[in-house]
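This entry is set out below.
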Amino acid sequence: MKRLLSAALAAALIFSASGSALAAERSSAAADTLYTLDLVSGSGSGYELDRVPTRMEALVFTLRLAGLEDEALEYDGQSTFTDVPAWGAQYAAYAQANGLVNGVSDAVFGADDSINSRDFLTMLLRVLGYSEDEGDFTWATADLTAVRLGIAESVYTEFDRGDMFDCALAALSCRMSGQDVTLIDSLVASGDVDRAKASALGLTGLRPLSAVEVAERYSSAVALLQCYANSVQLLNKTPNSTSSGFFISDDGILVTNYHTIDDAIYCSVTLESGEQYSVERVLYYDPDIDISVLKVSRTPIGGGDEAVFPYLELMSADGARVGDVVYALGNPLGLQSSISSGIISNNHRVSDSFALPMIQNTASISEGSSGGALMNEYGYVIGITTGYFTYGKDMYLAVPSDAVLSADLDGDGITLSELAEMDIAAGNEK
């Protein structure tokens, strides 16, 4: 049984109707859903969607979303903040002690100040298990991370309570970091949200993504590779090949096929935005299963600020089933931001060309798609698109992502030139 909030807190979270019809149309449904789940307090007068929330309101709301309100109310520690009202002291102390919130300074929380999108999304990402210390995101990239995860539709220039409710509702269907459970499922399991209500609203379980959602959320993490086999090609800017790759970390770890880089002395990586970066090192490669993992420079070619790359999450392909929907993201014929859809037609296809059984699927790829991402309908990469049967139709192959998940990426790696020389020495020159 949850404790009742004090009158002061209840007053702070009771919303009255005001604002534009656009704000109400955009966010009232989200607010109603959160109210039904007992995650928002309200009254018959509305939700005040177009007002900017205070930092204290956002903190209490975030603790509710985390299922931590009861623990916060029972917490007997103290925060370092001197400007928190008495009714909010336990909330602030608990949140500070558990790393969910920072103040404007060590002594000032800014309880009555308006909160911006980055501060709120930072708290929301922490609730989902993402950590700045682990390099999952930074305060400066909280908006971008939220867009990638589908929590926010875009980077906010202004932020109001309608936006806060929209983000919160989207976060409920978001996977907890490193887990196959959503935030709403976690709240249901802990008893903080009624299972029947959540099920009736269609919120429990992972929600399949449409092709539109996959393209909008994940295309920016797929890059175009242009590889050069000799100095003449490099001088003339005539690449020997174009292919695909995708980032698996925000600091520039990129996955592609081995055959895309095996004779290259230099490779450039072009993002969806058009920015170009150089491949610095080859961290891992295996010709027999046709994968390579590269370290991409964070500094753009020509100079500029260090990049924080959008990235995709890997999942073991062991659970992939025949008939599952999949999406292929890559650069067929060098055409960036391309997506195709299909199904898994065989999840254990043995081929003489590969040391591992492959994922056979019908998501079409072409020359240039090599090294792209094969994603399941929940937004996880389960394979690396690599080839197809020449005389078949809709018979495309992907290397299972397990090959990358089990790879040792901790070493310093080697340069592309060193890899090319090793291939020549081994008699693998093409």
In short: The chain is about 30% helix and 20% strand. Residues 1-20 have pLDDT under 50 and may be disordered. The two ends are 70 Å apart (CA to CA). The first helix runs from residue 7 to 12.
